[in-house]
User: Fold this.
Amino acid sequence: MNSGKILKDRGKPYKYDADVEKVQFILENGGFSVGKSGIDGKYGKDTAKAVKAYQKTYGLKVDGIVGKETWGHMTAEQNTYDDVLGFQQLLNIFGYSCGAEDAIFGKKTKAACKKFQKQMGIAVDGKLGRETWNAILHMETRLITWGFIVTRWSVQQFIGAMGLNPKLCAGKNTLKKLNEKPIVSRFKESDMVCQCNKKYCDGYPAGRGKYYGVAIMAERIIRAAEKGGKIDAYIPSRKRKTKGGGIAGGYRCAKWNVDRKGAKSSQHLEGVAIDIACDNKADLKLLQKYAKKLNVYGGVGDEGANVVHVDLRGKKSRWKYN
Ligand SMILES: [Zn+2]
Ligand SMILES: [Zn+2]
Assistant:
């Protein structure tokens, strides 16, 4: 808004004005209701009333008109539309359900904000101040550093890969893990390729990039098993000299899953399961032990003679074949 402009109720017919819309956003976000018609860019009686309430609260001249002084105060004190919207998006992504992403700092957003602040150990005031904003941006940055994209699904994958409950929000335990040095998995996406060998699919039937969380979990399991010395674990698609053959490491297309006699709703179909192969019985036992121990909220299967199956289904599941 240019400095000379004055916004006020000029009577009917009300005309839309983008600056009025901005003012209404700031008012709503500050807890000053602009009335039933909401944020519509029209300066009517309700908006004037909200402006008066705002001015009274902040010790400004109470006239219901947005001039230089009031506008200056509003832009200095309040978060922008983009700030609030971005904050809401991140709250939802990290599991702090704040409802609709509408850039309005309403009741649900405030409650989610407080919950987030409590988890992060910062002052709980329900406001989007610098410390709160920095805390959520820090989480986002760390997630990217770990190689994850920033979506609700991938946050859940990260939480699950750390053996935490992916249904919960990314709280202090997740933050602790995010702050650790990222684990680089020995499992690459090319290791995950569907073992139908392009007979039925292009190798990545569920689309690319799904394997990341489960690959980190598989890596954690192997590293734990390796604490007592190198073990015999290997990636089936890289080295497959075992009897029977046809072991799928990661992705599996529907037809190959039938050939493989896989479970109908196998996590391999979604690209979120890994089989760790191991020919040595003692080493296999170690892998099974740590898979069960570390993958608290995932599926762990003793899948045949020489494979440990791992997925991050979000709930505990244990089974045995044969
Ligand atoms: Zn296939
Ligand atoms: Zn499997």
Residues 130-145 form the longest helix (16 residues).
